[in-house]
């Protein structure tokens, strides 16, 4: 029973021949985000994994046993919710808006160009459907972004969109300034009129 406390991220630096000969272990996301668990690899060996806290495994990572053996991590297919934009009436930013909302709920989300994937959750499914996305259930390997990354990516888009809105707000502010200018102009006009009237009253040389 190999004890495993080392990880080579994506097998970097290892020869392809070594990886081909290595055993594999299929793990769903619930197992891969744990630092400590037991599993059985493709060679039938029981593995005791104890990685540093907070180290989530990804498909393609390589575990190193205390006996020097290598085990390639495979993302197991698992049930997920898949959210896609509507074929009609959908908007280009629907998925990013949804990713942002899911991020605020600290949901693990896999981001793809045409869909979002997340672990089954009735409350989040209802949220996505309220956002007019089409939600289905599928069984696929699940590789969510790191915690917070989905929200951060969507938040950056939101920030950019918000900045454009900010420019529109400044445009509105310019209109407001125009209103203030009109007010000032009225005030100046009143002031000039009062001044001329007073000046005319004390200067008999001014033509009438």
SSE topology string: EHEHEEEEEHEEHEH
List how many beta strands DSSP finds.
Answer: 10
Largest sheet: 6 strands, mixed
Instruction: Give the CATH class of the largest domain.
Output: Alpha Beta
CATH architecture of the largest domain: 2-Layer Sandwich
Let me know the average pLDDT: 79
CATH topology type of the largest domain? Alpha-Beta Plaits
CATH homologous superfamily (4th level) name of the largest domain: UreE, C-terminal domain
Our Rg estimate from Cα atoms comes to 32 Å
Query: What is the overall silhouette?
Result: elongated
How far is it from the N-terminal to the C-terminal residue, by CA?
A: 113 Å
Structural domain count: 2
Unreliable residue runs: 155-208
Beta fraction? 25-35%
Secondary structure class reads alpha+beta
Portion in helices: 40-55%
Q: Tally the helices: what do you get?
A: 5
Strand arrangement within the widest β-sheet reads 2-6-5-1-4-3
Short synopsis of the structure:
This protein is α+β, with helices and mostly antiparallel strands and 208 residues long. It is built from five helices and ten strands.
């Amino acid at each position: 029973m190999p004890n495993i406390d080392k990880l080579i991220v994506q097998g970097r630096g290892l020869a392809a021949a070594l990886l081909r000969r290595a055993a594999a272990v299929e793990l769903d996301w619930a197992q891969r985000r744990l630092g400590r668990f037991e599993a059985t690899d493709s060679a039938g060996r029981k593995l005791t994994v104890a990685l540093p806290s907070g180290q989530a495994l990804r498909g393609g990572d390589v575990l190193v046993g205390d006996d020097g053996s290598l085990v390639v991590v495979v993302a197991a297919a698992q049930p997920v919710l898949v959210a896609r934009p509507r074929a009609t009436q959908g908007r280009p930013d629907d998925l990013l808006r949804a990713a942002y909302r899911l991020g605020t709920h600290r949901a693990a989300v896999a981001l793809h160009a045409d869909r979002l994937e997340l672990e089954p959750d009735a409350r989040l499914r209802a949220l996505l459907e309220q956002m007019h996305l089409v939600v289905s259930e599928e069984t696929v390997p699940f590789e969510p972004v790191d915690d917070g990354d989905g929200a951060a990516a969507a938040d950056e888009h939101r920030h950019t969109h918000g900045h454009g809105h900010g420019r529109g707000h400044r445009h509105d502010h310019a209109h407001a300034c125009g209103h203030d200018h009109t007010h000032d102009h009225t005030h100046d006009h009143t002031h000039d009129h009062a001044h001329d009237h007073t000046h005319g009253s004390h200067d008999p040389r001014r033509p009438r």
